[in-house]
Amino acid sequence: MSGIGARPNDHVVRPEFVASLDDQLRDWELVLRESHHRMKNTLTLLGASVRRDFTRAGPRDVSVALDRFERRIVAFGRLYQLLSDNDDPAPVSIGVFFENLCGALSEAVLAPAGIRCEAAIASGTLSASQCHRLALMLTELVTNAAKHAFPNKKGALIRIDMARHDGAWLCTVADNGIGATGPLQGTGSRILEGLARSVQARLHGETGQGGTRVTIVMPAAA
After folding, report:
1. Residue 12 and residue 14: Cα distance in Å, rounded?
2. Neighbouring-strand partners of residue 118
3. For the domain that residue 32 is a member of, what is the CATH number?
């Protein structure tokens, strides 16, 4: 993680996460609506990368481009499945779930944009609902970094860490990009706020010339 992240700046996100039951219901309805919107945006990114590949491909490169396209479609399907709500009460393996998520994000979103992904995921279990909502937050942060952090893609890296510390799960998304110039706004901010409230989580951000790092802190027993 050395070299990624810099000065603390919790204004990168807005930690307003104390809400009534009615607020939580409205948040969850918003989350469902906006998460579908986010998946559509991810599909748009996938389509753009495919068009770029086929535009650049010569007659001899078409089969290579087709193979790459097929892998991305399969990865997008895995990503959509992981981000679909799951009410199964059985505990979910954090290592298996989030390693699969990071792999799907890398194949479907990051690799086509020339961004390298690293991940370190601790072992443990969470409920399916917790995994689903954390996955939506993580995907939003990764997608936001991929879109805005790297005007120059050379050496672009997004690092994902998930660990347990002092009775809480910490999920960190860090990039070595240009650094955020202000708080997350619009759709992305609303998704993060609503999801964080739904699992009693808080967000902490820091940014600077070395990049941006956002950590989701969720009580282990949320």
Report:
1. 7
2. 159
3. 3.30.565.10
- Domain range holding 123? 10-219
Residue 183 forms part of a structural domain: yes
Long-range pairs for 36-39: beta carbons < 8 A, 24 or more residues apart: 37/187, 38/136, 38/139, 38/140, 38/143, 38/187, 38/191, 39/80, 39/83
| CA gap 69, 72 in Å, rounded | 5
Query: 152-189, pLDDT tens digit by residue?
Result: 878 999 999 999 999 899 999 999 998 866 555 555 67
- What pLDDT is attached to residue 216? 95
Inside any domain, residue 62: yes
Cα–Cα dist 97/132, whole Å: 9
- The count of domains in the chain is 1
pLDDT tens, 90-121? 889 999 999 999 998 998 889 888 899 999 99
